Amino acid sequence: MKTELKALSSQVRLDLSIGKQPLFLLTLLIYFTYWAAIWLADPYRPQTVNYYAEMGMFPIVIMLTVLLFEREIGGGSMEVIATYPVSLRLMAVRKWILALVLTGLAGVGWMAMYRMKFGGIVNVMHPWNGGEAVSRQAGYLPLLLQTLPAYMLLASVAVLGIAWFQKLYGGLIIAFALWILDTVSAGRILGGFTLYTAYLTEGSSFIANRVILLVLAGSLLLLAGGVMGSRERWVGREEE
User: Is 134 helix (H, G, I), strand (E, B) or coil?
Assistant: First the structure.
């Protein structure tokens, strides 16, 4: 057990070695523009929370997911890794989880900045018991949980795109296409599948929407794991 935990810890450390990648610097730049926008805002006119929790953080989770596959896919080492006695499916799941953890930490970061600037976080919160949504003070965890299903779906789409096309841009393009489609249509195209709680129409069920996103996220992650775990797709075969 200790050996397995040690191996997992080593793998996680390698996964998190993303600091020198250009996409990481771009991700940081975009993220810190959110901090700057919050800090420079009029303190008497609190900004819309959903702009950061949803519209702002959706591209962040996509970029973080792609970043975590840079070493294997972007570095061209998957052909070698696929010959090792390691689970490629578990590797995909591990990186998916790490992307969500990093996104959660980033979420706590902008929320802390927002609270320092405006004294609190007021947002329309949807109760998980099916009650009516109300605008109220929101804590870190409730706000993260409200947006988590959408983060999970975007991360799953990105992992599937990477595994399917065997390229980082496969995940980047597909996940960004989903985000942009839902954003520019204000949720009209995806309807009950919208990523945004802000785009839920009157009479729509928040719980049904979040459950659908969770089911889709889990299903696509399973599919991505199956595609990623197909070793023959990664290992080059010599012609006879």
Answer: strand
